[in-house]
Amino acid sequence: MENLMDLYVHELRDLHNAESQIINALPKMIKAATHDELRNAFEDHFEKTKKQKERLENIFSDLNEEPNDVKCKGIEGIIKESEELLKNDTDSEVLDAVLIASAQRVEHYEMAAYGTARSFAARLGRSHDVRLLQETLDEEGEADYKLTSIAERIVNAEAATA
Amino acid sequence: MENLMDLYVHELRDLHNAESQIINALPKMIKAATHDELRNAFEDHFEKTKKQKERLENIFSDLNEEPNDVKCKGIEGIIKESEELLKNDTDSEVLDAVLIASAQRVEHYEMAAYGTARSFAARLGRSHDVRLLQETLDEEGEADYKLTSIAERIVNAEAATA
Which of A25, B20, B72, B147 has the least C-beta neighbours within 10 A? Predict the structure, then answer.
């Protein structure tokens, strides 16, 4: 990698692969969730994630680049961690707390990576990309906020008295 | 895992292992950094990270629990990703941008995980733990802000004209 454009394309590929891994993981999380409000939040985020991946594909197309995914090891590790916890003998009372803890790590990884990509796009003068990346960043922030609310209002209280 | 306390201890163990991995990775990042301001930021964060690990050890001691680290696969993946990028033929002009992108992923992982642990501690009525975890959360937020500033003022501009 020689310049910021190379690194920008690399970041976009990392994110595109991250979105694919998340699209693959979310149906399992939807199935595992026990509270309706959490399941609905995951279902909503599943639809948003598919749109976020499309936004990246629009950027690739504008750049005349292919996604050629780079395996996103950060997201892979976070998802593995969560799958191991779900496989363990985790009681149903704490299951949703495990799911939220893992989903918020995923959101935060994306916030960091999309924030980096947006900074690169701004420096490269790609204002249309900046807008698309900011839309996703806003959605990630909202999803994270919603999960904190579900955890603190409902899930953690039940897990504490289990 | 049967209740929120089990999950809280698990989160603390994950974080304790994450801090150990970060303490192991930071000297390599300090060595690789080319801009003085970035190197100083990493050096400062290295000292803070050692204190953050000690805060967790204080919490374990209060809980009469041992760290018994759980391998933190999330941080492991993020660090691996960065090490591969540094091994690749990455030009020195973009090296600092790579280091910052990776460090901000680490900060965000920690923000998510410490935020979860703080919520658990609050629900469990452990107000001293909440204060300790919040101190670390504040430091992570400040470190992230500082890295964005270094990237946007100095590093990305140079990488863009490389």
Answer: B20
Distance CA B150, CA A153 (A): 38
Among the partner-chain residues A7, A105, A157, the one whose CB lies closest to the CB of B74 is A105
The residue with tokens 């639809």 is A47
What distance in Å separates the CA atoms of residue A82 and residue B115, rounded to the nearest whole number?
17
Give the per-residue pLDDT at B68.
87
8 A C-beta contact, residue B121 and residue B130: yes
Burial of B39 (0-12, 13-18, 19+ CB in 10 A): middle
Query: What ranges in chain B are assigned the alpha helix state H?
Result: 4-32, 36-63, 73-87, 92-123, 127-150, 156-160
- Closest partner CB to B160 (pick from A112, A124, A162): A124
Neighbours of B125 (CB within 10 A): 9
What confidence tens digit (pLDDT) does each residue in A86-140 have? 887 788 889 999 999 999 999 999 999 999 999 999 999 999 999 999 999 999 9
CA distances from residue A32 to A20, A28, B127 in whole angstroms, order as listed: 19, 6, 31
> Rounded to an integer, what distance in angstroms lies between the CA atom of residue B110 and that of residue B118?
12
Say how many C-beta atoms besides its own lie within 10 A of residue B50's C-beta.
13
In this structure, the number of other CB atoms found within 10 A of the CB of residue A54 comes to: 12
Q: What is the pLDDT of residue B161?
A: 87
